[in-house]
């Protein structure tokens, strides 16, 4: 009975996504189906949901062309929360990054959309904590740009001092993210080199080896050749 109810809830969630029902009720249905699921099937279901949601999110974002900024941000927030529930933090962060960028791009005409340096910084920290230093580095750069804008808007000495401290913290975060990104890149290159080296060694080891032909006829011919050489050497010595 319980399994049937969970299956119904999962099916209902998929139907609501395909019906473009991006609301709190849909998220509650997803959360309920995941919480009620047994551990044996949870991993597999999450994997399937991740693939489904990634596919649907790509399609939905393509459908949002021409929609208002508010509508786009609402959908991005929905998918970010849904991916977080599924456990797909990479996609969750991608949705949040998309939303922050969308706000920043439209902030010149709508000041309330402007992303504060603290929002960028918090996002950078979250990205680092979840193992995505390259995203954290980009967010840190945006945080620094936001701090530069704020320093012009608020020239008071006390506030400037706070901004300088905040900027220093963001720079350290950015440098750490850049270092980790570089380290991951070097590790990837090293792993690729080792794989190619192993393949070359394996290729050499598996090449067909030409075995010497040890048939009786060859041995007989070799014997005659050696005997003739000995005769020739004897004649030369006379």
From TrEMBL:
It comes from the Eukaryota. One of its GO terms (biological process) is meiotic DNA double-strand break formation. This is Uncharacterized protein. It comes from Microthlaspi erraticum.
